[in-house]
Amino acid sequence: MVCVQSQAEKIAKNLESQLSDLTGKLDASARELADLNAFKSRSQAETAELARQLEEAEASAAQLGRLKQTLGKQLDEAKAALEDESRMRAKLTAENRNLQVAQFDVHSLVVGRLE
User: Which pTM does this prediction carry?
Assistant: First the structure.
């Protein structure tokens, strides 16, 4: 009977040791699960923040695209105005030269007749 009791105590000790090991593993798994859940929450928050930043960047890019288009139109208009002014200036310069030549001719005629 002592042998059976000794064997039962040995089995009980063995089972208690296994229970202690499994309890430790269960606690470690619970801590790991909590850590993973915390990481998941942080990752979700970071993903949401990055999505918000992406939306802002896309909105800024769209706004910059519209601004670029507007500035491009303004540049084209300014170039066209400059070309018009350059043509007008060239025309006026040519007319001025023609008038100066005509004035010189008239002056020469008047001086020539007076002499």
Answer: 0.57
CA torsion sign, 54 to 58 to 61 to 63? Answer: negative
Cα separation, 17 vs 9, whole angstroms = 12
Burial 65-90 (b: 16+ CB within 10 A, else e): eeeeeeeeeeeeeeeeeeeeeeeeee
Query: What's the Cα-to-Cα distance from 27 to each of 15, 30, 33, 81, 88, rounded to whole Å?
Result: 18, 5, 10, 80, 90
Note the pLDDT tens digit of each residue in 29-62: 999 999 999 999 999 999 999 999 999 999 999 9
Using the CB atoms, write b or e for 93-109: b if 16+ within 10 Å. eeeeeeeeeeeeeeeee
DSSP code of 1? -
51 half-sphere exposure, CB direction, 13 A CA radius: 6
